[in-house]
Amino acid sequence: MSTPRTDRPRQVTAEELRRRGWRGRLVVLGPAFVAAVAYVDPGNFATNFSAGAGYGYLLIWVIVVANLMAMLIQSLSAKLGIVTGKNLPEMCREHMPRWGSRLMWVQAELVAIATDLAEVIGGAVALHLLFGLPLFVGGLITGVIAFGLLGLQSRGHRPFERAIVFLLAIILVGLVSTLFRTDVDAGALAAGLVPGFAGIDSLMLATGILGATVMPHVIYLHSALTQRRLEPRSMADTRFLLRAGRTDIMLGMGLAGLVNLSMLIVAAALFAGTDVPATDTLEGIFAGLAAQLDVVAAYGFAIALLASGFASSGVGTYAGQVIMAGFLRRRIPLLLRRLLTLAPALVVLGVGIDPTQALVLSQVVLSFGIPFALAPLVWLTARRPVMGELVNHRLTTATATAVTAVVVALNGVLLWQTATGG
């Protein structure tokens, strides 16, 4: 009588994948697609559609620039996790005084809560548009679905990543399918790639697009998604993982950029120069798509928004786990973490605060957290004692520093505009 085998399948090594060439790189894909969710969250839906409705194709170049910035920043975060085997919160705890690490944790937790506020509201609005559910009920459903997504982590990183990629595919199909059915002005689209503005209001909207592009929670998370994913046994292995990570980022962030461009182009083609009302709200966009194109386009938008709310809420809670474990070396049960970040969103929905206003408020809170994530990331990846021979090239550090300064300045403008009512 034979005895059953109890050994687990052997995990493939980085060296084996390296020897497979481009096929090996495909196996490493995944982390950037999870990070890409932050760039197509419900806040981006409202901002990009508003830009297209208000100024046509004028601000297409802003989305392109924002996407290039995202690629650079996420590549540094992924690099930190691959080279050091530790994530950004862990590295901050190691290289900062205790009081500084605790302050970083506090602001990062506020960022996690603000992130979940936007994502849950987006999911709730989508469920209301699709099925007429009350916003509070929709928020509860979004929270439960996100919790279910996080439960996939117990089976390893692959099931969670596959679920996120599936939701990203839904977002892409829901928006790009409408783009192909829209009469796009190719000449105006090409002209929109040339930087330019049409007055102070367009400058402010461009500031909003750029400033809201970099989400601090996903900077923390991406470094955690790449750490110890595959243990490099040599410098050649590490360099292979870095190359594979760059491919991952190009594909994942490229997908996010395509989604954002689709939103703006559709809005420019259907709403710009028309009297369609309330195109700066999610509900108004839904109604406008139905009026200007058809119900299929409207429901495609709502389904994409729903997938965005589900995926981004799950990713946001995942980031909250990484933040607490990294800064404090403590973990709390996943259900408690989900409830803590979900509660503020349910309160907002329960008391009847306007969802669009709540989304704007969440972006303001996120703006405060951006420099706390970006500055340490650039500083750490530019330090030879941390990164060894894989330390950033001087040009990379200079570019990343300039991007950090631009993002921080733009978010400062947004904060000032919000505070003064400008």
Automatic annotation (TrEMBL):
Principal localisation: membrane
Keywords of the record: Cell membrane, Ion transport, Membrane, Symport, Transmembrane, Transmembrane helix, Transport
UniProt topology in membrane: Multi-pass membrane protein
Entries under Pfam families matching the protein: Nramp
Segments crossing the lipid bilayer: 21-40, 60-82, 103-127, 133-152, 164-182, 202-225, 249-272, 296-323, 335-353, 359-382, 394-416
Domain of life: Bacteria
Compartments in which it is found: Cell membrane; Membrane
Protein task: H(+)-stimulated, divalent metal cation uptake system.
Family statement drawn from the similarity comment of this UniProt entry: Belongs to the NRAMP family.
NCBIfam families: nramp (TIGR01197), Nramp_1 (NF037982), PRK00701.1 (NF001923)
The protein, known as: Divalent metal cation transporter MntH
Organism this protein belongs to: Pseudonocardia parietis
